[in-house]
Amino acid sequence: MTEKAVRLARRSFFSRLGIVTILGAPTAVAAAARAGSAGDSHWQAARHDQDDWLDKVPGQHRLVFDTTMADGLGMALQFAGNYYTANKNDYGLGDNDLAVLIIVRHKSTSFGYNNTMWAKYGKHFAEHANFTDPKTKEAPSVNVYVTADSGSAQAGRMDGLLKRGLQLGVCKMATRNIAGMISRAAGTSQDAVFDELSQNLLSNARLVPAGIVAVNRAQERGYTIVHGI
């Protein structure tokens, strides 16, 4: 058999096996190996040190509420209370078994500040949030969600939930915007007002780089999101 005939016979043999030859070397096995290796790769979220606090909140179950409006925050507080109650009554779980986080951003941001700030800047907060005191129909001088006798349907509920372990993520970008609004009206330094607000957050509250970023990072670390409120 001639050399050409031998090459043709070899090519026919490998073709029946589903192997392609290039310069006489079978390459299908190598190609399949490469394809398998590529198929094994999978996406995984990057981790950043500034988000590690999300993993330090105790709890077997993780839940995050994304709020952008004052009324939405009120509903989030109600649902968070239901979450604690149902898990206790029907699963026998304690507060430390539940990692519950509420993000306050956009127009719900100012409800992450304490009553000292509301007494001082309540008018500005109310203007920013498009919110009025449910009792007086005017700008409130207290954080209605942490003050028991505020007249809000959720009066004092946030304070009770914070004592049970609820965590708050307060939008840093919105806080800076609010500080700018106050400083322009009062003729003061935006940085000074920002620092003042940052130092007067509610208990279990922390500034996050941006509320929307915190929502994303929480989901990537296993928190189920509740949105649309």
Output the keywords.
13% strand, 9 helices, 229 residues, alpha/beta, 5-stranded parallel β-sheet, 48% helix, two-stranded antiparallel ribbon
Detailed description of the structure:
48% of the residues lie in helices and 13% in strands. It is built from 9 helices and 7 strands. Helix 4 (70-91) links the parallel strand 3 and strand 4. The model is unreliable at 13-30 (pLDDT under 50).
**Content-based structural category:** alpha/beta
Order of helices and strands: HEEHHEHEHHEHHEHE
User: Globular, elongated, flat, extended or rod-shaped: what is the shape?
Assistant: globular
C-alpha Rg (nearest Å): 29 Å
- Output mean pLDDT: 88
Distance between the termini: 81 Å
Low-pLDDT regions: 13-30
Number of helices: 9
Q: Proportion of β residues?
A: 5-15%
Tally of DSSP β-strands: 7
Give the fraction of residues assigned to helices.
40-55%
Largest sheet: 5 strands, parallel
Strand arrangement in the largest pleated sheet: 6-5-4-3-7
